[in-house]
Amino acid sequence: MATDSSLPETAAFRLMVLGTDLANDFAGHLRETGLTPKHLGTLAMVDQGFARTQDDIARLMRVSPSLVVRLADQLEQRALIERRRDPDNRRKHILTVTAEGKTLLAEMGSLAAAVDADLDAVLGSRLGGQLDEALSRLMGKLMTDRQR
């Protein structure tokens, strides 16, 4: 990692540039499904148990609750999620991923694995494994921080 303040050499800047490039490439593939990265993120968070309600998703994604309502409406219309009132708080909705949603997540997981394979081809197995370990650690911290 960079020890000086040269922006292009910082890990933060390089991760931002590379992440944006990968995200745009992945979003292009996702566009064929008619969904956006936020739709996919919503599905994945619910499926993985990171979020149960629309409010949870808004907090984790750092977006407005009204955006999550629209995302949930669109996902529900496509039968990718189901919404039901929370019996403990009727103002909240609990989301669950449907079988169709799980199928879509599996397809997108296969696509993401192909992107990962391209990264491994550039990095080699040792560096690819180290990148995976580093990203897992960073994602774990992010999810812990956002669930507070």
Question: What can you see in these coordinates?
Answer:
Helix content is 68%, strand content 10%. The chain contains 5 helices and 2 strands. It has a two-stranded antiparallel sheet. The longest helix has 48 residues, at 99-146.
Keywords:
148 residues; mainly alpha; two-stranded antiparallel ribbon; globular
Secondary structure blueprint with pairings:
Layout: H1 11-31, H2 37-47, H3 54-61, H4 65-77, E1 81-86, E2 89-97, H5 99-146
Helix pairs in contact: 1-5, 2-4, 3-4
Q: Could you tell me the strand content as a percent range?
A: 5-15%
Distance between the termini: 29 Å
Structural class: mainly alpha
**Order of strands across the main sheet:** 1-2
Number of strands: 2
- Quaternary arrangement of the chains shown? single chain
Query: Can you count the helices?
Result: 5
In short:
By secondary structure, the chain is mostly helical. It has 5 helices and 2 strands.
